[in-house]
């Protein structure tokens, strides 16, 4: 019964379309005021709802938004992001890819390649990437909470090539640089001759759940070129973030209408 009431309050706040006061929520649920207030305090303590304006009006909390986004299927994410990735692959004339954070690891879930038949390009493959070596992973890790970052730094930092950063000090310096410039790069850290750059895809205040990147041969992807692409990827990341969140809002609206 207690759980059912908590879920009912979450549903009411989620579909309201505006912040709700405790009095409004009590009126909608017909719950006794002391019970309703206790339930709201429980949801607040777990960051499932929040009073972001400190005016006694409640909205869905960052934790619940994060849960919803993490639970979004790869199919849904690819559907809304692939047109943007394809357009970028054509514009950059380079391979672009989308990665996501899930189960304490980062995986590449979608790749788009350029249409130019004369262009030599690199396909990065799909699946898990090392947290300390790949641009797509570092773009997410640099914006992770302190506990998760410590977990990355405490793990085995395997040297894939002579360019791989394998010490805590080197990675801490790089994470600071990533946060400062807004994107991460990988200079032959996994495979010699291959470089990549990636930007975090942030969702409001809940951090980076996805990242978007580009990859190519080091003869093209020198430091200046990676900087140029990195700046463009930060803008693309904003577009993909908006697309994913709009998709989420649309799904909620459909469920509400049903």
What is the topological layout?
Blueprint: H1 2-15, E1 20-21, H2 22-29, H3 33-45, E2 49-50, E3 57-60, H4 62-70, H5 74-92, E4 95-102, E5 105-112, E6 127-129, H6 135-141, H7 146-154, H8 168-181, E7 184-187, E8 194-202, E9 208-217, H9 223-257
Helix pairs in contact: 1-3, 2-3, 5-9
What does this structure look like?
- This protein has helices at 2-15, 22-29, 33-45, 62-70, 74-92, 135-141, 146-154, 168-181, 223-257, and strands spanning 20-21, 49-50, 57-60, 95-102, 105-112, 127-129, 184-187, 194-202, 208-217.
- With 258 residues, the chain is an alpha+beta fold.
- α2 (22-29) crosses α3 and α5 (74-92) runs antiparallel to α9 (223-257).
- The longest helix has 35 residues, at 223-257.
- The protein is elongated, with a radius of gyration of 21 Å.
- Mean pLDDT is 85; it is low at 249-258.
- How many DSSP E strands? 9
The helix content is: 40-55%
Topology as a string of helices (H) and strands (E): HEHHEEHHEEEHHHEEEH
**Total count of helical runs of at least 4 residues:** 9
- Strand-residue fraction? 15-25%
Q: Mean pLDDT, as a whole number?
A: 85
